[in-house]
Specification:
Elements: H1 2-8, H2 16-19, H3 24-54, H4 62-87, H5 91-112, H6 116-124, H7 126-130
Helix pairs in contact: 3-4, 4-5
Length: 134
C-alpha cells in the first residue's frame, strides 16, 4: 500500500505538454484559457461573499451564497491545476482537488433543493419584479 501511494507522488507521469507535443499554439491556448477561467472563478465568489457581507446576511439564504462560492472556488482550482499539469505532472493533487470539487458540487446541489421553491416564490413577488437592476 505504501509503495502504491509513493507511486502516486512520483514524477514518473508525463505532463500534459507532452500530449500537446509541446506545440506552443496548443499549449498556450489551454494555459491562457484555463488562466482566464481560473481568474474569473476566483472573482465571482468574492462578489457573492461581498453581497452577503454588505447585506449583513439579510440576503435570502446567505449560506447558499457561501456554498456556491466554495463550489466556484473549487472549480477554479481545477483550472489552475490544469495549467500546472501542462508543465509538471501533479496528478494526485489534481485528483484531490477534483474530488473536493465533486463534494462541494454535491453539497451545493443538495442544499439548493429545499430552497428552490422558496427562491422562485421570492422572484415571483411584485416587490422583487418592480425593482430595477441598475
Amino acid at each position: 500500500m505504501i509503495e502504491y501511494l509513493k507511486s502516486l507522488l512520483s514524477d514518473d507521469y508525463m505532463p500534459h505538454g507532452h500530449c500537446y507535443l509541446w506545440k506552443p499554439e496548443i499549449l498556450w491556448l489551454h494555459a491562457i484559457s484555463d488562466g482566464i477561467t481560473f481568474l474569473s472563478y476566483m472573482a465571482i465568489p468574492i462578489f457573492l461573499v461581498y453581497i452577503v457581507y454588505k447585506s449583513k446576511y439579510k440576503v435570502p439564504y446567505p449560506s447558499l451564497f457561501i456554498l456556491f462560492s466554495i463550489f466556484i472556488l473549487a472549480c477554479g482550482a481545477t483550472h489552475l491545476m490544469a495549467i500546472v499539469n501542462i508543465w509538471k505532472s501533479e496528478y494526485l493533487v489534481s485528483g484531490i482537488i477534483k474530488a473536493l470539487t465533486a463534494m462541494a458540487s454535491l453539497l451545493t446541489a443538495i442544499a439548493s433543493i429545499p430552497v428552490l421553491k422558496k427562491i422562485v416564490k421570492i422572484v415571483e413577488t411584485e416587490e422583487f419584479n418592480d425593482k430595477e437592476i441598475k
